[in-house]
Amino acid sequence: MKTTEYPAAAAINDANTAQARGGTNTAEPSPEDKELVKGKGLRSQVTLDGNEAVAYVAYHVSEIAAIYPITPSSPMGESSDAWSSIGEKNIWGAIPTVIEMQSEGGAAGALHGALQAGALGTTFTSSQGLLLMIPNMYKIAGELTATVIHVAARSIAAQALSIFGDHSDAMATRQTGFALLSSNSVQEAMDLALIAHAATLESRIPFLHFFDGFRTSHEVSKIEQLSLDDMRAMIDDDLVRAHRERALSPDHPVLRGSAQNPDVYFQGRESVNPYYLACPTIVQNTMDKFARIVGREYRLFQYEGAPDAEHVIIVMGSGAEAVQETVDYLTAQGRKVGVLKVRLMRPFSVEHFLQALPATVKSIAVLDRTKEPGSIGEPLYQDIITALTEGFTAGKAPMAAFPKVIGGRYGLSSKEFTPAMVARIFDELKKPNPQNHFTIGINDDVTHTSLTYDPAFSSEAPETVRAMFYGLGADGTVGANKNSIKIIGEETDLNVQGYFVYDSKKSGAVTISHLRFSKQPIRSTYLISRANFVGCHQFSFMERLDVLKAADPGAVFLLNSPFGPDEVWDNLPRSAQQAIITKKLRFYVIDAVEVARAAGMGGRINTVMQTCFFAISGVLPRDEAIAAIKHSIEKTYGKRGESIVRKNFAAVDSSLENLHEVKIPQSASSKFEMRPAVSANAPEFVRNVEALMITGDGDQVPVSAMPIDGTFPTGTTKWEKRNIALEIPVWDEELCIQCGKCVMVCPHSVIRAKVYDASSINHAPEGFQTAVPKWREFSELKYTLQAAPEDCTGCGLCVAVCPAKSKSEAKHRAINMEAQPPLREKYNQYWDYFLSIPELSRQKLSHGQVKDQQLLEPLFEFSGACAGCGETPYISLMTRLFGDRAMIANATGCSSIYGGNLPTTPYSKNSEGRGPAWSNSLFEDNAEFGMGMRLAIDKQNQYGKELVERLASSIGEQLAVEILSADQSTEEGIFAQRERVKTLKEKLANNPAPAARDLLAVADELVKKSVWIVGGDGWGYDIGYGGLDHVLASSANVNILLLDTEVYSNTGGQMSKATPLGAVAKFAAGGKRTPKKDIAMMAMIYGRAYVAHVAMGGNDTQTMKAFMEAEAHDGPSIIIAYSHCIAHGYDMVYGIDQQKAAVNSGHWPLFRYNPALAKEGKNPFVLDSRAPSIPLEKYIYNETRYTMLVNSDPDEAKKLLKQAQENVNERWKLYQHMAAMNFDKA
Amino acid sequence: MIDLSTNYLGLKLKNPVVVSASPLSEKLENFPRMEDAGAAAIVMYSLFEEQIEAESENIDSALEYGANSYAEATSYLPDMAKYHIGPDRYLELLRKGKAAVKIPVIASLNGSSPGGWVRYSEYMEQAGADALELNIFDIPSDPLLTAAALEDRYCDLVRAIRKQVHIPISVKLGPYFTSCANFAKRLSEAGADGVVIFNRFYQPDFDLEEMEVVPNLVLSSPHELRLRLHWAAILYHQVETYIAITGGVHDASDVLKSMMAGAHVAMMTSALLKYGIEHIGVVLAGMEAWMEEHEYVSVKQMRGSMSLVNIESPAGFLRGNYLKTLGSYTWREPGTALTTL
Predict the structure, then answer these.
(1) What stretches of A546-661 show up as alpha helix (H) in DSSP?
(2) How far is A915 from A878, CA to CA, in rounded Å?
(3) pTM of the model
(4) What is the ipTM of this complex?
(5) Is A71 one of the catalytic residues?
(6) Beta-bridge partner residues of A755
(7) How many Cα atoms within 13 Å fall on the side-chain side of residue B95?
(8) Which residues of A touch B204 (CB under 8 A)?
(9) Of A480, A479, A765, the residue nearest A613 (C-alpha)
C-alpha cells in the first residue's frame, strides 16, 4: 500500500504566486498547450440550454452516470441516456453507461460504488434529490474520491414545494466536504463543468458544480462549444490512472470504510486538511490552463467593475450577470461600484478572496439566493464576514478599514432579480447605516426586511432586440421560439438568449417566451419588461391577460386573430386599444389558425407565427429569414418524414400572404373591457391573493398576505375560469340512459349529474335540460346532466365512453362535443343554476354502483391536469365515495401538482364544509407519511373513546354507549355517528373540565376517517417502494391509490420500474429491456393487504368494487390503477379504448385479492378479466411509445414484442392458477 | 416437355404463377422460398403513401403533444436519432429481395398525392424494381366527382409516372368501373403496360352491439375468380394490354382458366397464406398434369382460348350469361358432378 502523498507544499506555494485579483492571465502557453490551442478553430458556436451544455461535458469525460429524474436537472440525464443509446463515445472512445436508479439516494450509492471500483462517475440532480445524496456525499468526500455532481440548483420544499431555482439545495451540502463551484451562465456552465472534472482528479476533492435551475439550466443561449480535444487536453490521463489505482480491487485488496473509535476518528477526519488547502489553487491553476487552451478566463473570485470601487456586491450564480450588467451601466456613469462573483465557495480560499476584492471598498452587500431561518445570516454572507475578519486579524486584508458588510436575500425560487434591484442595493450601500439582512424583490410588510426599488430603472442596451410571445402550451409557441433562437444564433453573429415562462397548469397552460438578440454579450438574466416586439398567439388572451403591458413605445405587436385587419379593432378590449394608441404600436394580424389548418398543420400555429415574426421584426432580412426557417424545418422535422416538412413549408409560404398591418384609429372605441380574473363573488383570499397569481401578478403579493405555514383554503379552482375548451359536451336528454359513465371518466369533474325534486327548479333558466330519472325509486324526481363550460378542457373522454347512440344516426350519442363559444354564456347560467340545486342525500344511494356514483358530489374539481388525464378520474371517484372523511397523503408527482399547485386548489368541500384534507410531504416518504396520519387518527380516536368512557356520566350513559359501540361500516352508520358527535360536542361546549376540553378537541376523530395514500408509479414502484412495502406489511388501515402511468409523467416521461418491456421512455430511449415489475404480486405475498388491479376503462364496475372493498378492509389496501397518460403518445380521447385494449390483451389483467375471503375459506384472489382476446401488439402498437421503437429499431422492437407477449402469456397462466386454487379450510 | 412460360409486362416468366402483393413479401426470407416453390415473379406488398404520412404524423404529434407546455416537462417522449419513416424500409427490402432471387420483383405502390405517386415510383425504379404495379385503392365517395373525371385523374397519373420511370407499369383496378374495357384501353394509351384485375377492397363490417364499423378483410375464395375470368375474357384482344388476374386463384384449374380467359399471369395470395408458399409447386404440378392429360404443350396455346373473341357464342359473356347461368342450375340433373377442368 502506498504511503500518503500530500499535495500541500507544491499547491500552497502555487497559491501564493497565484494571479492577483482581476488581472489577466498573461502566461505564455506551454508547448503542449500550444498544440492544444489548435483545437480552438474546431469549436463551433451552438445554441443550447445550460442543462445540455453541462451534460455534454459530463458525458464525454465520464464512464458511468447514475441518474434519477428531478426538475430542473432531468434533461441532463435524458441527454446522456439518449447519447449512450446511440453509441456516442466519451473522450477515451468508450460509450458511457447511463443507469437510472430508484432514487437519488440510489444514484448516489451507485455512483459511490462505481467510484470505489475505479470508474469515472458523475450524476445530475437538484433540490430534494441532492438532499438524498448527502449521506453518500460525506462518504465520497471522506474517502477523497474524485467525482462531479452537476446540480441545477433549486428551492427546497419547505412551506411548499417549488421546482424553481435558488441555491437552497447546494448550500445544504456545504458541510459535506464537496467543493462547491458555481456557474453564472450557459457558457460558464459548460466551461466550469470541464474545469470541475479536471480539478477533481487533481485535487481528489469531489466537486458539486451548480448553476441556477431554470435561469441557467433552461435558458437557451449561443455559446462556443468545447471540442473533444479541449476535454482531452484538460483531463490528465495520468490522474485518471491514479484514480483507478486507488480503486478497490481483489488484485491489490484494501479495506475502505472502516469503523473508527474515539481514539482515532478525530485524527482521521483531520488527515484530509492538506487536500482542502491545496484545492483552491488547483482549481485556479485548472482555470488558468483552461484559459490558455480555450481563451476564456475564470477566477475563483472574479471581480468586475471600477478598480477603485467603494461599493461592491458579492454574489454567486446567474444573478451575478444582472449585477455585472448594472455595474457596467453605473461605472459608465462614473459610479465607483463593482461586483465580486464567487465561483469556488468550498473550499473557501480567504487568500484568493482578499486578493480579488478592491482595496478601496467601503461597503459590501453579500447576496444569498437561499434562506436559512434563524441564522445570523445566510451562508455566503457568513463566509464573507468570516473571511474579512480573518483577513484583518491576520493583517492580510488589502483595505485600510473593515468595510461595512450587509447581507441580503434575493431571487428565491426564480424570483426575478433585476438591475433595478441591483441599483437599489448599491444605493443602500452608500448610506451610512445600510440595512442589513434585507430582502429585495418582494414586499415584506411583516418584518420589513425588503428594500423598495424603482422598477423603471433599466440598464439594458437599447439596441438589444427584445421580443415577447404569449402562447398556449399546445400551440407550439415555445418550440417555435426555441427554433427562432437557433436560427438567429446560427445564421447571424448576434448573441441570443431565450427564456420561457410557463404557468402551473398541464392543460391550457399559458406560455410566455422572452427572447433577446444583441451584438453585445447578453447578461440580462431576468425577464423582459420592455419589449420592442410582442406576439400574442391566442386571441382569447386579449380578454384575460395584459399582453401589451411590457410593450415599449413604437413596438411591433403581432396578433393571431380570427378577425381580419378591418374587423379586429372592434374586437379588442378598450385597454388594449388604448395601449396600442398611446404606445404608437405597429399592429399586425394574421389568422394563423386558418393558415395552419389549410397547410394541414391542425391547431399548430407555430410555423405560421414564427414566419410572421421574422417577416416584421427585421432581425434578419426577410428572404434570408424565410430560407433559414425552411432550412431549420428540414433539420428539425426532416427525420420525422417528408410530409411534415412539406406541411411546414406550405405554412411558411402562405403566412406572408395572410399577414396584414392594421390601420390604427385615433381613439379607443371598444365597448368592453378585459374580464376580471375571478368573480366578485369569490372569497376574499381568492380575490385579493389568488387572483393576482392568476393574472401573472403574483410578485405583487405582500408577505402579510401569504399563509405562514403553507396552509391554503380548498375548493378554489372553481373561481379560476380558464375557458380553454374549444368544444364542450352537450347533453341529449332523450337519448341518455343515465349510466353515469361520462361523469365517472371526466378527468376534471366538469360533467355532473343530479337527481332532485322538481320543485327545486321552479326558476330554472330557459332551456335548462331535465329528464325523468331512470331509477325506480327516484322516478318522481328530475334528473339533469350538466357540463361546466369554462372549466371543461374539451378532452372528449365523456363522449368516447358514452354507450348511448342514436338509433338513426350512429355518430350522435347522448352527449356530443359542440363548439363552446356560442354556448358559453348560456351554459354558464345553466351551470350556476345546476350548482344551486341541492345534492341528493348520500344515504339514498348505493355507493358501489357505477350508476349511483354519478349522484355523489365530487370533492375534487377542475384540476390543472392534462386534458384527458387518466389519473384524475380515480381521484375524483375516491372523493365522491369517501371525500367527506378523507385524509390524503400525496406523493410528489403529477397528482401533487394538479392537486396542490397554486394559484388554486381542486380539492373542495361539500355543503356541510367537509372534504378531503390534503398534504404532500415528499416524493420518497409518502406511504410513511400517510401511515403517520393513520396512527394519529387512531390514537386520537382511542383517546377520544377513553375520554367518552371517563365522562360517560356527564355526557349521558346512553350517548356514550352509542358512540363507543357505533357501527360505522355504512354511510348510514357514519351519518348517525356524526349526529352523536354533534350532540356530544354541544354537551361538552360549556364544560370547563380539562378532560371535557380534551374530548372536544378530539371528538371529530370518533367519526370514521379514511386515509388515502396517493401517488404515481415513480413513487410506488421506485423511490417510495421501501416505505410502501413497510406499510403493506403493517396492519395500518390505510388505502393506497397507485396511479400507474407506467412512467414518471410529471418530470416528462422517464422510465420507472412500471414501464413495460419494449416501451420507449426517457432513460430507456432504446426501449425498456426488462419487464414491468409486478407490484401487485409483491403486495399479495404478504397475504394481509387488500390488493386490486383496476382499469376504469376496462371494467368500471370492477373499479367501483375495488374502491369499496379497499376502503372496507381493516388493514392496508392498495389499488393499482391503470392510468393512460400523454407520455404514452396518442390522443387522450382514446384513453378509455386503450384501457380496454390493455385489459383485453392481457397486459393489464383485472383482479382483486381480498384477505377477508381467505378467512371465509374462499380463494382471496379473484380474476375479474377474461383470458387475453387480442394479441399484445393490437394494444401496444396504438401507442407511439412502442411504435417509436418499431420506427427507429425494428429488429429490436420485434424481439421485445415477442418477449413481452411471452411475459403476458406466462403471467396470465400464473394468475389463472392462482384463481383456481382451493382455499377450502376443510 | 410442357412449356409453361409466359410474358407479362414484357418480362419473360417461366410460368404464369405470380405471388401477388401480400404480407408474404414483408419478410426477406420469403423471397427465395417463393422462388424455390416455383413462383415466376413476386409482386411486393404495397407501399402506402398514406400510411407513411400517418406514421410521420404519429411520431410528430406524439413528440409535440404536451411539449413545451409545462416547466417540469418540456417533452414526454425521447426524440430518437432517426426514424425509419418514409419509403426507406420498403426500398431496402426491395433491394435485398431483388438481390435474393433471380425472378422479377414487381414493386407495388399506393399513393395519395400526385407528387407522391411519381416520387415513390422513381424511388422504386432506382431500387431495382423490374416493374411497377400501381395499386389504385381509392373509394370515390364524393358525389360530385364524375366517373369521367375520376378516370381522367387516373390516366393523368399514369401519364405522369410513365414520363418519369422507364420500367413497365401495370395498374391494379377495382371492379367498379362503369366501362371497364374502355378504361383499360385509356390506361394503355396513357402508358400503362398492363392491368391487374381486380383489387379486393376492405369490406367494413358492422358491430351491431357497439354500432361501430369494423374494418374487415377476409381471404379470397375461389368463387371470386369468376368475375376476373369474365373481364379478362372481355379485355383479351380487345385492348392491347397485359392482363393479370388476381383474386380467387387457388389451384391449378384456376390458373388454367385464367390463361384461357386471356390473362398473361395468375396471381396468388390467399391460397399461399392458407396452405403455405410451397403450394405454388402443387399448382404448377397440377397444371402440368392437366396439360399433359389434355395434350397441351404450352400455356401460349391456351391463352385466350375461352375469351370473348374466341368463343362460339360471345353473347355468353354478355347479358345472356345471366340467363345461361340460371339455366344451367335449372336443368342440371340431380347428382351430376360439376364439370371440372
Answers:
(1) 574-582, 592-598, 606-617, 622-637, 642-657
(2) 11
(3) 0.93
(4) 0.91
(5) yes
(6) A783
(7) 9
(8) none
(9) A480
